[in-house]
Amino acid sequence: MYIRLFPKPSRLSKDQPPLARFVLKVSNSAGARRPYISPVFGLIQVGNLTIHERLLRNYDDFVWPVDTTFVGRFIIDVEFLDLKIYSVNGGEASSTSIWPIDRTIMQSLSMQNTLRCLSRMLDESIHTDVTIHAVGGTLSAHKAILSASSPVFHSMFHHNLMEKESSTIHIEDMLVDSCMALLSYLY
């Protein structure tokens, strides 16, 4: 199997081809989905990821022969880290990112959106899987988020405590408002 990345043929892509920085992975859609990561032509090796940077002018500029035994359906994941317009002016090459906003700002906006979604999931009890009984009321939350955010909750759900088997937590010495403040902080 061969994976090729190339721009849509047009006059613009011929005159100003894209310069792409990306990570490419292939995984089987069934089973554990352990990715097979492109090892060839890498620009930077970060852990087990290879970051590629390629000028994509035509069909043959990036070809990855995938030597794998995947059977059935598979997923091809291309994560573009940066995409630039490459142009040659008077013999000198230059490139300009199509993402003019600084990457840290983009990450910050993405993180804010994620936190807003998690807060909404807590506030509206969307897909909750644990009930917390506190003094004066009951709250709903998510085991995964509580476990990831707090070593106490992690122990409750992963060791031989009654909360591991149950989807109910009893906190008899905390008011429901204080418990909600704690949950909001954890989320």
Mean pLDDT equals 80
Q: If you compute it from the alpha carbons, what radius of gyration comes out, rounded to the nearest whole angstrom?
A: 24 Å
* Count of strand segments: 11
Structural class from helices and strands?
A: alpha+beta
Whole-number total of structural domains: 2
- Measured by DSSP, the beta-strand proportion falls in 35-45%
The count of helical stretches stands at 6
- SSE succession: EHEEEEEEEHEEHHHEH
The rough form would be described as elongated
Name the poorly predicted regions.
Answer: none
Helical amount:
25-40%
Separation, N- and C-terminal Cα atoms: 43 Å
State the major sheet. 6 strands, antiparallel
What do you see in this structure?
Pfam families: BTB (PF00651). InterPro entries: AtSIBP1-like, BTB/POZ_dom, SKP1/BTB/POZ_sf. It comes from Cannabis sativa (Hemp). This protein is of the alpha+beta class and 187 residues long. The chain has 2 domains: 2-100, no CATH class; 117-186, Potassium Channel Kv1.1, Chain A (2-Layer Sandwich), CATH 3.30.710. It has helices at 11-15, 103-123, 143-149, 151-158, 162-165, 176-186, and strands spanning 2-5, 18-28, 36-37, 44-46, 49-55, 62-65, 74-89, 92-97, 130-135, 137-141, 168-175. Strands 2, 3, 4, 5, 7 and 8 form a 6-stranded antiparallel β-sheet that branches. A 3-stranded mixed β-sheet has the order 10-9-11. It is elongated and about 70 Å long.
List the topology elements:
Layout: E1 2-5, H1 11-15, E2 18-28, E3 36-37, E4 44-46, E5 49-55, E6 62-65, E7 74-89, E8 92-97, H2 103-123, E9 130-135, E10 137-141, H3 143-149, H4 151-158, H5 162-165, E11 168-175, H6 176-186
Parallel strand pairs: 9-11
Antiparallel strand pairs: 1-6, 2-3, 2-5, 2-7, 4-5, 7-8, 9-10
